[in-house]
UniProtKB/TrEMBL annotation:
It comes from Cryobacterium serini. It is an enzyme of class 2 (transferase). Keywords: ATP-binding, Kinase, Nucleotide-binding, Thiamine biosynthesis, Transferase. InterPro entries: HMP/HMP-P_kinase_dom (IPR004399), PM/HMP-P_kinase-1 (IPR013749), Ribokinase-like (IPR029056). The keyword Nucleotide-binding applies. One of its GO terms (molecular function) is phosphomethylpyrimidine kinase activity. This is Bifunctional hydroxymethylpyrimidine kinase/phosphomethylpyrimidine kinase. It comes from the Bacteria.
Length: 294
């Protein structure tokens, strides 16, 4: 079980802090987190853990600022703002993980979601091998961990699963050894549907597996999907307090964001999802209505 006390107070507009790396093209990392938080009704804040030179075609280089400066950023936020939830993304080095862990222990935010950024969709490794065990040790301090298929395998020191059933089994093992709820994702599997499931073996959910499957959206523009999903889950959970309900709401939003991703035409590789598709649709409908009235 997690050793952090739960003090979650639901808010209509929760204050969400993203601790993550950057993406100059705006589709992943902190930029995607802030869009995702806003799109799902939260107020987003951001602390930079890594500066990443990347685009829709891949990662070129990573610069990690000193961990002391990372702590200064974290303290600057938590000394002033009540944080309702934290989403943690890319923590590229051992000292960065240690600093975030220390801050979590001191600050004790009521809700923490960890997206263990280790392997990008492009195949790029985003975590130093020496830091892998430190990231595993961080998991018991969070409430939800959201690995992709490849990251789930790395966390368990196993081979990646090739079927949804085997991915679920790996999720159960990770939950059992950490006491934490695992969001198991099927996006990287070559299946007709795109299932996701909340897994907890400690009795923290109505059932040990809460699964939701929607049709797979056929698009190459999936850049930043994991970042966006995890930050959306932190935001909606801080509003609802119900993990299953949060996953339903987030999955529906993400499904539409993927369905409209091709509209953006950003980049020459795997472009971003359309975080604000609903806002754009309402604005277009309002413009049509106004034009009709005039």
């Amino acid at each position: 079980m997690t050793d952090r006390p739960s003090q979650l107070a639901l808010r209509q507009t929760p204050r969400i802090l993203s601790i993550a790396g950057t993406d100059p093209t705006g589709g992943a990392g902190i930029q995607a987190d802030l869009k995702s938080i806003a799109a799902n009704g939260g107020y987003g804040m951001a602390v930079v853990s890594a500066l990443v030179a990347q685009n829709t075609r891949g990662v070129r280089s990573v610069h990690t600022p000193p961990s002391a400066f990372l702590r200064q950023q974290l303290n600057a936020v938590s000394d002033d703002v009540t944080i309702d939830a934290v989403k943690i993304g890319m923590l590229a080095q051992l000292d960065v993980i240690a600093e975030v862990r220390s801050w979590l222990s001191a600050c004790r935010p009521p809700l923490v979601v960890l997206d263990p950024v280790m392997v990008a969709t492009s195949g790029d490794r985003l975590l130093e091998p020496s830091a892998e065990q430190a990231l595993r040790d961080l998991i018991p301090q969070v409430d939800l961990v959201t690995p992709n298929v490849f990251e789930l395998a790395v966390l368990l020191d196993e081979h990646p699963a090739a079927t949804w059933a085997k991915v679920l089994e790996q999720g159960k093992r990770l939950s059992a050894c950490t006491g934490v709820t695992v969001l198991v994702k099927g996006g990287h599997l070559n299946e007709t549907s795109c299932p996701d499931a909340l897994v907890n073996t400690q009795g923290l959910l109505p059932h040990s597996v809460v699964e939701i499957a929607l049709p797979r959206i056929r698009t190459r523009n999936t850049h930043g999907t994991g970042c966006s999903l995890s930050s959306a889950m932190a935001t909606v959970q801080a509003r609802t307090g119900d993990w299953a309900q949060s996953l339903i709401e987030v999955k529906e939003w993400l499904q539409d964001a993927l369905a409209h991703a091709d509209d953006l035409e950003v980049g020459q590789g795997n472009g971003p999802i359309h975080h604000f598709h609903r806002l754009f649709a309402r604005a277009t409908a309002a413009s049509v209505l106004t034009a009709g009235v005039s």
